[in-house]
Amino acid sequence: MQNALQFLKTNLRWLGVGFLLTFASAFGQTWFISLFAGDIKAVHGLSDGAWGSLYTVATLASAALMFWRGSLADIVPLSRLAPAMTLVFALAAVLMATAQSVWLLGLTLFLLRFCGQGMLIHMAMTAMGRWFEATRGRAVAFANLGHPASEVVIPLLTVLLIASIGWRTTWLGVALVLALVVAPVLWTSLRHERTPQGMAHSDSMTGLGARHWNRTDALRHWFFPALVPVLLTPGFIGTVVFFHQVHIAEVKGWTLAQMAPGYSAFASLTVAASFLSGWAADRFGPHRLLPLLLVPMGVGVALIGPAENVVMWYVALAIVGLTQGMASTLWGGLFPAVYGTRHLGAIRSLGTTIIVLSTAIGPGITGMLIDAGIDFPAQTLAMGLWCLTLAAGSIWMARRLNSELAQGAL
Q1: Domain residues for 17?
Q2: Residue 335's domain is classified under what CATH number?
Q3: d(CA 363, CA 56)
Q4: Phi and psi at residue 206, in whole multiples of 5°?
Q5: Residue 2 domain flag
Q6: Would residue 197 be called left, alpha or beta, if left means φ above 0 and alpha means ψ between -120 and 50 degrees?
């Protein structure tokens, strides 16, 4: 405990930057934007299908831009990039508050998803991976606390604001928070970069073969292609579970109010798993966590199918939260350990693109299955089997990677 407090005290400024970036990313997350869905659809005359399609296209476009420009984290100092992206984020919030046409709404969604779901998280995890080495897992875990913190604080406050000042004015408030609070705090905190620097000048942390890998080399190596299904799965399942919560309530005969405590269970276990996996990654190596990653999610999501009592919903979300907490920490530590830090932004942007892609395609695929007569609880059984199958395959991945890391071989 004393060592943890000393670590926090010594690195509070840098850890705070990561926390603030992940916390502020909430304004571009699906769960936040969905709070305004009813008003947006009513104002723009959109059906559920049209709204979902527009959202999917905007998210896919943001994923494409992440793939193309995520390497900015290797080129532009974080002291300039983080405040600049936050101001773009604020502009997107202003556009959401003022958009009068569907095409402008689409552009707004694209910017919100690119900044929130993409760049702010990408910058936070790239910085933690580059700034910390021996304590990288704990640093990533602390930075990721911004996610559950925002999920606890922001939803209720947002609902109250919408009711009192209206949804458009609430978005203007979001813009003011980003422009007048988040951006200045980031600029002030990053005036003096941490060593190693928050850009690709440090050669101190190499990956496999004692070298720094670029994106092309990573794609040619067996590990990244093998990792893609594992990268896709937590985002896909985590998104659709929340996206279809109303449908689940209708199928099960529950109310949303009855289901609400499940989110507290989810957030609590996410935080616990994040810190525990951060310690384990520092102690044993992040690659050793791969076989464990999808086991809780597989068990948890499969419980939704046969659940009759709403208490099982709480249990299911809590268990799914274990994987979500592990995943955020694992990716933050695994990429620098395997590929080094010189091109970390470019390689992480590839991983982030895949994760964002999974959040885009998930609602569409599961929604079509629901329309075809396969309700979501029935789908969860197949999702659980998928997770456990990937977990078994990850044992081979972890063993092979461990051998290469130990031998320094390619």
Answers
A1: 10-202
A2: 1.20.1250.20
A3: 8
A4: -100, 170
A5: no
A6: beta
Which tokens in the block code for residue 302? 């499969």
Q: Which position has the token pair 């695994």?
A: 334
The tokens describing 179, both together, are 């422009």
Cβ neighbours around 253 below 10 Å, total: 9
Q: Comparing C-alpha atoms, which of 121, 114, 1, 3 is closest to residue 62? A: 114
Q: Are residues 242 and 390 in the same domain?
A: yes
- Residue (of 20, 26, 29) closest to 128 by Cα position: 20
d(CA 410, CA 404): 6
Question: Whole-prediction pTM value?
Answer: 0.75
Cβ-in-10-Å burial (0-12, 13-18, 19+) of 185 comes to middle
Which residue from 343, 196, 295 is spatially nearest to 351, judged by alpha carbons?
343
pLDDT score recorded for residue 282:
79
Q: Can you read off the two tokens belonging to residue 379?
A: 């789908």
List per-block mean pLDDT (blocks of 10 residues) for the chain, which spans 410 residues.
63 85 91 82 81 84 83 79 94 95 94 90 82 74 83 83 93 96 92 55 63 84 92 90 80 82 84 85 85 96 92 94 87 81 76 82 81 87 96 93 71
Shared domain check, 321 and 176:
no
Distances in Å between the alpha carbon of 241 and those of 109, 168, 299, 344? 21, 28, 14, 31
Is the domain of 39 the same as that of 73? yes
Inter-residue contact 113 to 229 (CB < 8 Å): no
Residues 6+ apart with CB under 8 A from 256: 245, 246, 249
